[in-house]
């Protein structure tokens, strides 16, 4: 039967169900969240690059998640917005679908690796403050960031390749707003149980592998903070890690919810909600997580705005 099967060369994405009025409301909501996400993360990147007071490893690492958040959300959200604005299904070629899935997974994996790196950075800052500038020098910071990016893009080559080696002739309709891997496996002609199991093991390896240094680092961090005699000292030490800890909790929670499940072909509604959490909600929250309680960043941003106002007046 497979010999009579012609594999599809394009996919039709159904996007979101509902009336045109509901789709307009969703468009306005997601467009607002996407705009704030891009603007908020851009402000972080520009402020960190321009202000000399923020030239430290902590803020160097902070700039990279902001870049990743912009890129991750931009792999799918603009396409999703187009589908909400225009009636009917969207068409995506097989090549474009593969590129979208690869970029989304690679950038997400790089972000997970960077979360582990940032946890180690916070461990050194709290537990070895006198040696912090020696250990986390500019060369070390640059190398670990490069390795995080390279690891993300190399580790997802085989999973995406294996997915698109399947024959998609059962259907070319994906009940999603982007090229979701679960939906691709669902419309495959072949038995995908083995592929799903391998992808599940790889997701476990990547997520848990990057989570281990985070858990170990925060175990030492909490132990060190509890040994500080003064309450103000404990509060100050914890404040340096609070933003990153919140970022880690939301990031890993989203990924575990979406990817660490033995069966990738979950119900379309489940995958849509989980994907929105990763692609829209988390990138929207992160600029606020990193800046609202960071007095040094707020001061640097305020100084930058004052300089801009003075330049405009002149």
What does this 3D model show about the protein?
This protein has helices spanning 20-50, 57-74, 77-85, 94-127, 132-135, 138-155, 157-164, 181-186, 193-226, 231-258, 268-291, 295-313, and strands spanning 10-13, 90-93, 173-174. By secondary structure, it is mostly helical. It has a three-stranded mixed sheet with strand order 2-1-3. The mean pLDDT is 84.
CATH topology: Rhopdopsin 7-helix transmembrane proteins
| Secondary-structure class | mainly alpha
Helix content: over 70%
Percentage of residues in DSSP E strands: under 5%
Low-confidence runs: none
Order of helices and strands: EHHHEHHHHEHHHHH
Function: Odorant receptor.
Main location: membrane
Keywords: Cell membrane, G-protein coupled receptor, Membrane, Olfaction, Receptor, Sensory transduction, Transducer, Transmembrane, Transmembrane helix
Membrane topology: Multi-pass membrane protein
Give structural attributes.
3% strand, GPCR_Rhodpsn, 314 residues, 74% helix, olfactory receptor activity, single chain, 3-stranded mixed sheet, 12 helices, mainly alpha, Rhopdopsin 7-helix transmembrane proteins
Short structural summary:
This protein is mainly alpha-helical.
């Amino acid at each position: 039967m497979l010999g009579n099967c012609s594999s599809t060369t394009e996919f039709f994405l159904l996007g979101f169900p509902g009336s045109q009025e509901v789709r307009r409301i969703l468009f306005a909501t997601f467009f607002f969240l996407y705009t704030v996400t891009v603007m908020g993360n851009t402000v972080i990147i520009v402020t960190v690059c321009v202000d000399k007071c923020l030239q430290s490893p902590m803020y160097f690492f902070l700039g990279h998640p902001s870049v990743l958040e912009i890129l991750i959300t931009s792999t799918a959200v603009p396409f999703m917005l187009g589908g909400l604005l225009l009636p009917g299904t969207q068409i995506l070629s097989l090549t474009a679908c593969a590129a979208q899935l690869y970029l989304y997974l690679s950038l997400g994996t790089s972000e997970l690796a960077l979360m582990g790196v940032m946890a180690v950075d916070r461990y050194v800052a709290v537990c070895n403050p006198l040696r912090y500038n020696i250990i986390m020098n500019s060369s070390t910071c640059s190398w670990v960031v490069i390795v995080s990016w390279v690891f993300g893009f190399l580790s997802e080559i085989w999973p995406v390749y294996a997915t698109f080696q399947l024959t998609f002739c059962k259907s070319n309709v994906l009940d999603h707003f982007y090229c979701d891997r679960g939906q691709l496996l669902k419309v495959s002609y072949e038995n995908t149980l083995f592929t799903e199991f391998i992808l599940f093991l790889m997701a476990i390896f990547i997520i848990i592998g990057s989570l281990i240094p985070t858990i170990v680092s925060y175990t030492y961090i909490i132990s060190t903070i509890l040994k500080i005699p003064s309450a103000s000292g404990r509060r100050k030490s914890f404040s340096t890690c609070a933003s990153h800890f919140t970022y880690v909790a939301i990031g890993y929670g989203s990924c575990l919810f979406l990817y660490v499940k033995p069966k990738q072909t979950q119900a379309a509604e489940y995958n849509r909600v989980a994907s929105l959490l990763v692609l829209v909600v988390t990138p929207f929250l992160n600029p606020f997580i990193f800046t609202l309680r960071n007095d040094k960043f707020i001061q640097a941003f305020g100084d930058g705005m004052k300089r801009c106002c003075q330049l405009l007046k002149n």
